[in-house]
Automatic annotation (TrEMBL):
Pfam family, one: BPD_transp_1
Topology with respect to the bilayer: Multi-pass membrane protein
Name listed for the protein in its UniProt record: Peptide/nickel transport system permease protein
Principal subcellular localisation of the protein: membrane
UniProt lineage: Archaea, Methanobacteriati, Methanobacteriota, Stenosarchaea group, Halobacteria
Amino acid sequence: MYIIKRLGQAVVTLLAVITVTFGLIRAMPGGPAEYIRAQVMQNRGSNGVDMSQLNSLVESYTNVDPSTPLYVQYFDYLTSVLQGDLGQSVWFNRPVSDIIIEAAPWTIFLLTIAILLSFAIGIVLGAVMAYQEGSRFDVGSTVVSMFLNSVPYYIAAIFLVYVLSIQLSVFPQSGNYSTSIDPSLSAAFISDVLYHATLPIASLVVTGFGGTAITMRGNAIQEIGEDYIRVANLRGVPGRRIAIRYVGRNAVLPMYTSLMISIGFMFGGSVILEEIFAYPGLGYYLLQGIHSGDYPLMMGIFLVITVAVLLCILIADLTYGKIDPRISEGQSKEAY
């Protein structure tokens, strides 16, 4: 019953997002329909434009036929989106779904490595800070973590590009792989992809692990002060086992939800990062769509990012009760 309830809420949210997207297509001043009309009239002249052909052209790009009633337009748009048809890109003159399928793996690759590294470094550092609470290492690490966490990732990205790419020429400034290497599963291509992804990943990791470390430190200190830890020490349980299985495990569990949610929200954060490094992921194409007024492309990527956030929150909510046995059945299983 609980799973059905959560799935139902996710479906309602998805339909709401699609409805908002449909409303934006229709109501946005200078929206896709007006933009396509203007382009056609500019090329052919106002006298050489047939409205039926124009409406057909608008429908091919946006999945919305302006000549039909509003409810028919909404139903057609909803059906097309649910079937994976997100329209045609005006700027690239390609199906939006093809562009998303081509770009999404690069964004997922970039963000997955960055998030895993940020959480791994943050959890280890936070645990060490907790066990050395009050020491110079703890104070220094806390100050550094808070400072790095307050730096926007795009500022770090610009700084890394300027120092390591422009001044020292250690890493490439842009792209996802060298044009001289053919895409394949060879070691040379994979190492080249990792080489090009180093600076974008470093920008997210450097500005992201501090928040995780501070949160982990607080959780671990709270667990260390619990009575069951004192009992374990009195019973002679090895300190390493207490640190890893008792303190570490219980301190990490509350961070699981934030990990899953951050995966979804970092899709949105990839827009500026991929533009800085000219990295051809979802964010790069979304900004290209904004610059060129390519509304079908913008709406398609907006929908994909929203669905990614929705799925990550849903997965976090459905699996949190499985990994933490202290969570009881019922309403207390809400992860957010």
